[in-house]
TrEMBL record:
GO BP field: P450-containing electron transport chain
Family statement: Belongs to the adrenodoxin/putidaredoxin family.
Molecular-function GO term, any one: metal ion binding
Protein name per its UniProtKB record: Ferredoxin, 2Fe-2S
Amino acid sequence: MENNITVHVQHPDGSRVALEAPTDMGLSLMEYLKACEYDILATCGGMALCATCCVDVLEGEDKLNEMSDDEYAMLDTLPDVLPNSRLACQLQLNPAMDGLVVKLHHAE
């Protein structure tokens, strides 16, 4: 469909799953991954307060919106944050994100 993008999720074993994500429903990447039954706690409900939806962006980081101060501050509390880590709750699905590759931060 024209309002869908492909988001790839890399599993701990290195395999990747391609998911077709809608961009016309106002979903965040966190909401979409939860709907696809990925193990994301999202205990704060998407308010950038808990970092339980942290993902590592493996490809397509340049396609994402700039990190907010709140997101940066929350990521800064994680002991094992990577330069390419983002909070999935802060990433609204949009057409520019087509081809994005992410890995759940704590899926090891």
